[in-house]
Amino acid sequence: MAMQTDVKGATCAASTSTTAFNGRTRLKGIWYSATAQSTIAVKDNATTLFTLTIGGAESNYVLLPGEGVLVQTSLVLTNSAGVAAVAFYG
User: Fold this and answer.
1) What span, in angstroms and rounded, lies between the C-alpha atoms of 51 and 78?
2) Cα dist from 63 to 16, 46, 80, 81, 86, whole Å
3) Predicted confidence band at 83 (pLDDT cuts at 50, 70, 90)?
């Protein structure tokens, strides 16, 4: 099977909204490191697609099934305090 597209990563700091990619793309996965209970909201511009809830201090990688989550406008991650992430998209 051929690769569909190159996968890139964007660092998303804690307590911020970060535009990981401006344009149509697919979110493939998220790596995060949390120091406390926190959330990561994944958005298509201003529309929240889903929110990842983290129970406490941990680091983990979330691989999204299939071909990932389609974002039509721009991929935005909004991290609460205590969690930083890397969004993998392509």
Assistant:
1) 9
2) 22, 23, 20, 22, 12
3) very high
